[in-house]
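User: I'm curious whether this sequence folds into something compact or stays loose and floppy. Could you predict its structure so I can see for myself?
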Amino acid sequence: MSTIDFLWNTVESINRVMQEIFGLLMTSPQDFKGGAVWSTMVAINNALQPVGSALFVIFFLLGAMRSISSAADARRPETIFKMFIRFILTKTLITHGLEILLTIIAVAQQLIGTVIGYATVNVTYAVPPEVIEAAEHSGFFGGILVWIVALLVSIVAIVLCVMMIMTVYGRFFKLYMFIAVSPIPCAFAGGVSTQGTTVQFFKEFGAVCLQGLVVVFAFIIFATLSSSGAFFTFGILGDNPSPATYVLSYGVQLAFQLLLLNTMVKGSDYLVKRITGLGA
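Assistant: Here's the prediction. I'll summarize afterward.
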């Protein structure tokens, strides 16, 4: 296999991984892997609803005892109204929390789908034509060195692509965990002093949903940079680098770009929290 073949196989592998990741991000939890995992998570959610209801009663009574300091407070219409609203909202969260979480997922997927629609049409990894031309004129010894570097870059790309796919799969497992245990953190909304746990739960869940948006942006940025050669810094190597040096520089920088891309994908949960303030 020639140097050019290695480079093309590398970028085509990246394109395939990018499309697979985009497909995973647009897959709903109900459809993931045929829905087998989803049915189990729903069963767990249903089983935990009585537990959540029991906790809700405890937190609600404790919150009521703290809010009502005297008999006069208990007779105030605003106090009774606030307690009634809290009771209805918390019970709704416990009973229909699954539908609420699915709605949040659907909204996030609409945003992700909009960006993916742009990326699918306008963004793809490609080997710049000048790199192909330089590879064809690298000479015998330079060609051997370039071939070795291209092979190493191909291996690095495979490893990093597997890691990125694992990160996206890990996002699915996070969503499933949130969905399965949702009745428990939702029950904390029953008390004034414990409602922060419920708020934090939904903020963390929203951050996981939007994690896919950061992943898509990362692919768009680095696909554009890779195809344009924007990372090339041939000034360091001289004004007129040899064809072999040109290709070597491209291979090294492609590996560097993939490493940065993998870092962005793996850190997407942290980035979305920093950008949106969710989960903070």
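Summary: Residues 77-122 form the longest helix (46 residues). The mean pLDDT is 80.
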